[in-house]
Give the backbone structure.
Amino acid sequence: MHPPPPDAATSERPQPHSPGDLFVSFTWLALQGFGGVLAIVQREMVEKKRWLTADEFLEDWAVAQVLPGPNVINLALMIGDRYFGLRGAVAAVAGMLTVPLGVILVLALLYAHFAGNPEVAGALRGMGAVAGGLIAATGIKLIPALRRHPLGFGVCLGFVALVFGAIAIARIPLGWVLLVVGGVACVWTWRKIDS
């Protein structure tokens, strides 16, 4: 049996009942996530299920971003492991992949058949705009958590602007931005907490 999370406050709030609950929850998340599941994961895990606080979500999402592989798979792996160890990690990742894989295969067959249709191409472009809006909305929702960051709200917003400028305007590769800006932010935060 995997021990409960170390924080007593964590064990008092809602949590998944079993690895099966993780599987079903992450399957449901994955099936809602056309174009990206960040907004949906944040809403489900923090606001509805309350398995994570906003601060925990922000911290876990930051770690998931810098690990290799798909962000949401990394997050599912961490959440599953937190509650049920290896069994939970496997259940959460399987939930993110199993049923959605079948849906994607069916959609790929349909797309291959209808790819030349201009209405289909227009609909897909429209979905891309919606996905971008969902990601932006989630980022805006996470801003209040930055008010409690050890570096202070202004410094955090400075890092946000710096990363945005580096990636969106200067077109610096994400890996370099994470390494340099993320490294500076981590070291600065660590020193601030340590002092």
